[in-house]
């Protein structure tokens, strides 16, 4: 039987118009599912997106011992883990996404057995070290080590003497390290303070869910999270917050194509830095009771300066499709990436399509940057406006993938985009939503021997 390959075919030139519903956040629900493993009570999640990363996380939880019922049409998922059947996560999950490492924090306090999880995956955006994760778990009383096994790697952890609350101060407000520390602290004896913690909306969503579960957890105004450990929980129902990355993606696609869309369920409070930059380039938006409208209303102007940073700053996941928008703006704009040092790898494809983009190793900005003394190309200039031409594209990572989709919607001709599984990880019903908005897009399957790709 021949292997199958799927790709997107997009013919540019059509403005997006209409209404779409904002999906639940990928970076929230996957962590919430892991958090539910702390409890032996049933948890119910609403607004759950049907995406690949959720499918993978569901499979992980089932392997550990969770009973799961997922109504994808109603977007409701029930999970109940009365006992941990195994604390060994098989190597088939190696590299699948970045969820396995969070199982260390969730399971160390739930089981007396050794916890073994495979190496993490997800998009390669540069260095994403686990030092902050491991250091925090060790300070809480866990023993953690990395071992090579079966040509793959795995993390071994145990806390046979139990976890003890402590003071944790993160060197950098990493979202993943913050979440891992929170999960471990929930069942630790005593009080844990996490300083310099990440405060992204998805982290806040996790905290709110844990409160519903019966956890004593709170935050203050100085990036400090306080958790009082315990082992008594209650059933909880939680609605997943909307996906701010998806909202920004569709908004930029609509404005770039000179369209007008309404994103139902979009929340202004999650998008403040993004909306501010839209105003700077002259893009239109209107905050309404049930969502936000995004539209093109006049020629777009460049000259903006964007520096990505941790919340409440401008998200690193917003800059890729925003760069495509800037190719349609009059003037020169600056992007300074301070979160991941290799986030601009996608730009060579945009240049091949006709974009005028220059990369720099120096910091073109004033924000504190970990890469100031490195040789990484982490700043860029975008000169516009430029017209884009269709070509064949292979997606390297999730957010770059949507940037290519926006570029294809603008380009003259028909663009073929392969490696669409990256998009499946984070965008629910992407093809159907874009078709509903009037895009000329279709998803096709080809045999591996087909010559239609390149």
Topology:
Elements lengths: L3 E8 L5 E5 L4 H11 L6 E4 L5 H13 L2 E5 L4 E5 L21 H7 L6 E4 L12 H9 L3 E7 L2 E7 L8 E3 L5 H12 L4 E5 L5 H13 L2 E4 L5 E4 L7 E4 L4 H13 L3 E5 L7 H10 L2 E5 L2 E5 L9 E3 L11 H8 L4 E6 L10 H7 L2 E5 L18 E6 L7 E3 L3 H13 L3 E5 L2 H6 L3 H7 L3 E8 L7
Helix pairs in contact: 1-2, 1-6, 3-5, 4-5, 7-9, 7-11, 9-11
Structure, explained:
The protein folds into two domains: 4-22 and 243-447, UDP-n-acetylglucosamine1-carboxyvinyl-transferase, Chain (Alpha-beta prism); 26-228, Enolpyruvate transferase domain (UDP-n-acetylglucosamine1-carboxyvinyl-transferase, Chain, Alpha-beta prism), CATH 3.65.10. Helix 1 runs parallel beside helix 6 (201-213). Residues 121-128 and 448-454 have low confidence and may be disordered. It is an alpha+beta fold and 454 residues long. The strands form six sheets. It has a four-stranded mixed sheet with strand order 21-22-1-23, covered by helices on one side. It has helices at 26-36, 52-64, 102-108, 131-139, 175-186, 201-213, 244-256, 272-281, 319-326, 347-353, 398-410, 421-426, 430-436; strands at residues 4-11, 17-21, 43-46, 67-71, 76-80, 115-118, 143-149, 152-158, 167-169, 191-195, 216-219, 225-228, 236-239, 260-264, 284-288, 291-295, 305-307, 331-336, 356-360, 379-384, 392-394, 414-418, 440-447.
């Amino acid at each position: 039987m021949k292997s199958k390959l799927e790709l997107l075919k997009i013919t540019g030139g059509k403005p997006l118009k209409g209404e779409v519903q904002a999906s639940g956040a990928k970076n929230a629900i996957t962590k919430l599912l892991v958090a539910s493993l702390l409890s032996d009570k049933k948890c119910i999640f609403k607004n759950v997106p049907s995406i690949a990363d959720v499918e993978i996380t569901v499979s992980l939880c089932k392997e550990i011992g969770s009973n799961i019922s997922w109504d994808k049409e109603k977007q409701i998922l029930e999970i109940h883990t009365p006992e941990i059947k195994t604390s060994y996560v098989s190597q088939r999950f190696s590299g699948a996404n970045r969820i396995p490492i969070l199982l260390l924090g969730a399971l160390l306090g739930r089981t007396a057995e050794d916890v073994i999880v495979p190496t993490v995956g997800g998009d390669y955006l540069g260095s994403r070290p686990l030092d902050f994760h491991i250091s925090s778990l060790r300070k809480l009383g866990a023993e953690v080590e990395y071992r090579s096994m079966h040509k793959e790697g795995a993390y071994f952890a145990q806390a046979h003497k139990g976890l003890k609350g402590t003071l944790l101060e993160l060197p950098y407000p990493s979202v993943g390290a913050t979440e891992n520390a929170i999960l471990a602290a929930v069942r630790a004896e005593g009080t844990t303070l996490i300083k310099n913690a990440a405060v992204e909306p998805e982290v806040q969503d996790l905290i709110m869910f844990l409160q519903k579960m019966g956890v004593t957890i709170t935050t203050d105004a100085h990036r400090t999270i306080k958790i009082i450990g315990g082992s008594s929980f209650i059933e909880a129902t939680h609605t997943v917050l909307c996906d701010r990355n998806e909202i920004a993606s569709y908004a930029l696609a609509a404005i770039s194509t000179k369209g007008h869309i309404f994103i139902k369920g979009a929340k202004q409070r999650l998008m403040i830095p993004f909306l501010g930059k839209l105003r700077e380039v002259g893009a239109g938006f209107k905050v309404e009771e049930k969502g936000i409208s995004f539209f093109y209303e006049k020629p777009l102007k460049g000259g903006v300066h964007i520096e990505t940073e941790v919340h409440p700053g401008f998200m690193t996941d917003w800059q890729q499709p925003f760069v495509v928008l800037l190719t349609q703006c009059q003037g020169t704009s600056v992007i300074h990436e301070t979160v991941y040092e290799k986030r601009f790898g996608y730009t060579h494809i945009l240049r091949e399509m006709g974009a005028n983009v220059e990369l720099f190793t120096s910091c073109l900005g004033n924000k504190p940057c970990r890469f100031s003394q490195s040789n990484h190309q982490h700043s860029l200039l975008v000169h516009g406006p430029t017209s884009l031409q269709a070509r064949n594209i292979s997606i390297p990572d999730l957010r770059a993938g949507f940037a290519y989709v926006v570029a294809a919607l603008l380009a003259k001709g028909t663009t073929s985009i392969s490696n669409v599984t990256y998009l499946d990880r984070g965008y629910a019903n992407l093809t159907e939503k874009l078709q509903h908005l009037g895009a000329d897009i279709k998803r096709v399957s080809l045999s591996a021997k087909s010559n239609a790709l390149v």
